[in-house]
């Protein structure tokens, strides 16, 4: 995940929400492991052909795990919405406190596990960035793609300084590009670096 390059109460709330999201995801994985151990999925039958509970699985544990997964998935959906709203709030606060003459604005590109490809460095031809990488979570999409803290984002897919207006533009590109490459250009020191992020669920 690429983070907001600012401090404040809104950012702290978002960070706590992200920690809670990570906890929920770990619990989903733990409950899914129970299903995997029993060689069943979310919809496999728990009774045999005669209508009796299957004796090759732990029916109680499987039913409990399925129930927990459904509840956790609902919690995950809700907290992702709160995180998106929080990021929008942080972004709005940052823009409101920025000097009108600056072209650098904070944004985020959350939860897109990706890979870096065609990492090419070349001299800077322009420095019109619209976002700054505030923090990079270890093992996150940004980390895997090669983004570093304080990188200045010049282009994220079709978004650049001239058409950027709202952080939700980034969210939309990410959500509509799962499994597809997103070209990203950043200014790092005196060079422009091209990266490719491949979002996945």
TrEMBL record:
A Pfam family recorded for this sequence: PDZ_2
Keywords tagged on the record: Chaperone, Proteasome
Membrane-crossing residue ranges in chain numbering: none
SMART domains, per the entry: PDZ (SM00228)
Entries under Gene3D superfamilies matching the protein: 2.30.42.10, 6.10.140.1710
Single GO cellular component term: proteasome complex
InterPro entries per the UniProt record, alphabetical: Nas2_N (IPR040815), PDZ (IPR001478), PDZ_sf (IPR036034), PSMD9 (IPR035269)
One GO-annotated biological process of the protein: proteasome regulatory particle assembly
Record has Iron as a keyword: no
Residue span(s) of domain PDZ: 84-190
Family from the record: Belongs to the proteasome subunit p27 family.
Listed name of the protein: 26S proteasome non-ATPase regulatory subunit 9
Provenance organism: Papilio machaon (Old World swallowtail butterfly)
């Amino acid at each position: 995940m690429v983070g907001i390059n600012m401090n404040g109460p809104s950012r702290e709330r978002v960070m706590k929400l992200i920690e809670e999201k990570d906890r929920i995801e770990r619990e989903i994985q733990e409950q899914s492991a129970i299903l995997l151990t029993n060689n069943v999925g979310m919809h496999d039958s728990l009774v045999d052909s005669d209508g009796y509970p299957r004796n090759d699985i732990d029916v109680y544990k499987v039913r409990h795990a399925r129930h927990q997964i459904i509840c956790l998935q609902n919690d995950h959906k809700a907290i992702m919405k709160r995180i998106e709203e929080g990021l929008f709030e942080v972004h709005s606060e940052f823009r409101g406190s920025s000097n009108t003459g600056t072209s650098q604005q904070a944004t985020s590109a959350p939860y897109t596990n990706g890979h870096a490809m065609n990492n090419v460095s070349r001299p800077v031809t322009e420095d019109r960035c619209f976002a700054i990488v505030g923090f990079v979570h270890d093992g996150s999409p940004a980390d895997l793609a090669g983004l570093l803290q304080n990188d200045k984002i010049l282009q994220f897919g079709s978004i650049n300084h001239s058409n950027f207006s709202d952080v939700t533009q980034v969210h939309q590109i990410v959500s509509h590009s799962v499994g597809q490459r997103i070209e990203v250009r950043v200014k790092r020191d005196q060079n422009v670096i091209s990266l490719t992020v491949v979002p996945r669920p």
